[in-house]
Amino acid sequence: MINKSKKLSVNLIKKFSAGELQELCKATEEAIEKGIGFSWIKPPPRQNLENYWKGVLAMPQRNLFIGSFEGAVAASLQLVFPNKSNEASSFSASIDTHFVSPWARGHGLARMLLEAGEELAYKSGFSQVLLEVRKTQDRAISLYENAGYVRWGTLPAYHIVKEKAVPGFFYHKRIDRNK
Fold it and tell me: What does pTM read for this prediction?
């Protein structure tokens, strides 16, 4: 998926091409430093990040989308399929590690990633997408709610940030087009 007017692209990847892993690690570090990184509070050592992202690609139930802005990797989204042993949830896929580096925000990349993840979920036979987000992530919450996600729960102590409990919100969206 490419938006040429803003030089945005979203790609589902199965292996890293030259430079992608380093760019993704850099974007991850920048997002974490600005408080918009997923579950990390401070950037882990670079080798840990590299191992994390390589591990994502090694896991068959994880689908990694990377978003680029003006040719540089700036964002990600994982669409996670349930384990085969989780038959009761076989209709639901989950979104994980959805972020955009600060320098690439405000151009629609987060929305493009979300739409790409939903499309893969739909094409893969899932009828529901789940996600969770910290209460402090106002822009992400707005994106999800505007995209039709319904908040179904709140966990008062979802994460600990700067020694304070931060609530988390849980969302679902039906993607069955025959509802």
Answer: 0.92
